[in-house]
Amino acid sequence: MNQPDALIATAPDTAFAEWRDYFALLKPRVMILVVFTAACAMAVAPGTIHPFLGFVAILCIAVAAGAAGALNQWYEADIDALMKRTASRPLPAGKMEPREALNFAIALSVGSVTMMGLATNWVAAFWLAVSILFYVIVYTVWLKRRTPQNIVIGGAAGAFPVIVGWAAVAGDTSLLPWLLFAIIFLWTPPHFWALALFMEADYSKAGVPMLPVTHGLAHTRKQILGYSALLVPITIAPAVLGLTGWAYGGTAVTLGIIFLAMAVKVARSHSARASDMAAEKQLFKFSLLYLACLFGALVADRLLLA
Ligand code: HEM
Ligand SMILES: CC(C)=CCC/C(C)=C/CC/C(C)=C/COP(=O)(O)OP(=O)(O)O
């Protein structure tokens, strides 16, 4: 092959980004649980919303979460290119021009916030804008490359959507939605650090100061247990305060015992190789099921009481 032919064969094809690439830019798998928690908050919020407007509100939260994920990928294509888990994303893989991704993400951000304001109310639209800005500016631009506390503070981004969902129906916020916010806020460190333990090599290679990279595996395991111990009482608080029934409370206690048992197993583990980290992988997977079941129970509890 002469030189120009070789270039054509290996150069990334950014001319024709496909719909699949745009879809991948939205981090759709993570979005599902974010949207689910927000939809559950909508279901238990006081007030009524027309089913069509409720659907539009959920769509706006999904689009905003996707837009924030796209802005995140636009900003950190350099580190995504260095990590095995993220190297095949559309930007590091050269399937899309950065400018295309940025325009797409800005259009979706502005569109979703505006649509939320028009379809529901501007309190919900305000918190939706805060969610996007928190994920992009506070987490991605400001904290991610600077401090291992990045996900503790930045984790609020993933907790705001429940406030958005609640406000879309109720028009304002109250104690219960802020407790739901606190649940996701405290859940995020065990969720993410369990994964970061077995992905430590990737983050270390990319120079991202995640806790296992900066403070080691043993310290991270202790922090996971500490945050889990804070999380479980907060999940039970809505029932204790009489804001939910005991169907939710009982589920929170049961799930909490399982979550704590798994976190203890992680804290006791000494594995240094990702391939030996069964307890960490189990906790990461369970963290997803845990949050889904907890929010599902919140809705089921409300239906039982109705
Ligand atoms: C700052 C906060 C958070 C960080 C840094 C974080 C980080 C991560 C990372 C790195 C992954 C692996 C993604 C992949 O390889 O595809 C992941 C997976 C996941 N996260 Fe989080 N996460 C955070 C908050 C949340 C929140 C708030 C939710 C939902 C409420 C969530 C839901 C999920 C889900 C559902 C997956 C599995 C995706 C899959 O199956 O590929 N995350 N998270
Ligand atoms: C409504 C709205 C704006 C919601 C956004 C909230 C949201 C999805 C928060 C979760 C944050 C998240 C997926 C971080 C992934 O970390 P990372 O970006 O460091 O992961 P990566 O290494 O996979 O890129």
TrEMBL record:
Keywords: Cell membrane, Heme biosynthesis, Membrane, Transferase, Transmembrane, Transmembrane helix
Keyword presence, Transferase: yes
Chief subcellular location: membrane
Annotated GO CC locations: plasma membrane
A Pfam entry, by short name: UbiA
Gene Ontology MF term list: protoheme IX farnesyltransferase activity
The enzyme's E.C. designation: 2.5.1.141
Pathway annotation from the record: Porphyrin-containing compound metabolism; heme O biosynthesis; heme O from protoheme: step 1/1
Substrates-to-products reaction catalysed: heme b + (2E,6E)-farnesyl diphosphate + H2O = Fe(II)-heme o + diphosphate
Enzyme type, top EC level: transferase
Biological process (GO), any one: heme O biosynthetic process
Domain of life where this protein originates: Bacteria
Membrane association type: Multi-pass membrane protein
CDD domains (alphabetical): PT_UbiA_Cox10
Subcellular location as annotated: Cell membrane
Entry's transmembrane regions: 30-49, 55-75, 101-119, 125-143, 150-169, 175-198, 224-241, 247-267, 288-305
Signal peptide extent: none
Family named by the database record: Belongs to the UbiA prenyltransferase family. Protoheme IX farnesyltransferase subfamily.
Function comment: Converts heme B (protoheme IX) to heme O by substitution of the vinyl group on carbon 2 of heme B porphyrin ring with a hydroxyethyl farnesyl side group.
Family annotation (HAMAP family): CyoE_CtaB
Miscellaneous comment as given in the Swiss-Prot or TrEMBL entry: Carbon 2 of the heme B porphyrin ring is defined according to the Fischer nomenclature.
Protein name stated in the entry: Protoheme IX farnesyltransferase
Origin species: Sandarakinorhabdus fusca
